[in-house]
Amino acid sequence: MGKVLNSQQVGFYKENGYLIAEDIFDSAWLDETLDAFNLSFAQQLERRKLPVATGERLAALHDNMAGLLQADVQLYLATLRMCSKLYGVYQLMTAPRLRGAVEDLGVSTPLFQTTPVLHLMARRLVIPGGYQGFDVHQDWTSVQGSLDTVTTWIPFMDVDANLYTMEVVPGSHLNGLLSGVQEPNIYRVDEKHYSEEQFVPVQVRKSGVCLMSNFTVHRSSRRGDERMRISVSGRYENASEPTFVEREYPFTQLKSLHRGFITENFPAEGQVRKVFQGQ
């Protein structure tokens, strides 16, 4: 018996390359983070003197995101990027029960090479000229760290078959790295390695998580209604996996720092004093 997962669950993961684990997070954490998302979009709408939706949590957030997208695409994207860096997102990624579940799958010395990634699917929130979701791919090339790296996919609401599920090909991880094409956002797997009938939809309830091998073939489903699906994903890599140690800890993710001033003539002395002295 593991800390969080039982032997049957661990066996299922090893055989299929993915696992749905329920009751990993406190639902209140998810709601608090959604509220922080909504606050972020509402602040920008108020700044632009645009209407701010209130009421039921998800409906208000959906309306406010749509309102900002319609008003300013670049501001919408900037707000969305900021939301992926909020404390609540990191709280989910480091939740004790998630840490325990990943350890049960063999990740004994976890590390985070990547920052969490926010995933959004909704018909009202398609960026003009853009896209939503990912085609068939493997995650391996995005990190190339430990062979036992676990992708964690955490939804903020119940994800049913008609809410843009993730779709996986069970057992595909055992074939290792497949031939394909490296594209800007994904490593697209060659079609000869899968067939349409092999894909299985991943339905996860709120407070649950889908744990998945970096070698599991998967994609985003385009099947969905008028609702919005928000999820966050991250990578639990293992600093003690033998091939990672032997390869001297390679990382694909590199940090860069903007050394110059982003906003000219900012901040003024008075703005700093106001923070500390309330002037």
From TrEMBL:
InterPro entries membership = Phytyl_CoA_dOase-like
Q: What is the lineage of its organism?
A: Bacteria, Pseudomonadati, Pseudomonadota, Betaproteobacteria, Burkholderiales
Q: Which cofactor does it need?
A: Fe(2+)
Pfam families annotated for this entry? PhyH
> By what name is this protein known?
Phytanoyl-CoA dioxygenase
Please give the organism. Answer: Herbaspirillum robiniae
Please give the superkingdom of this protein's source.
Answer: Bacteria
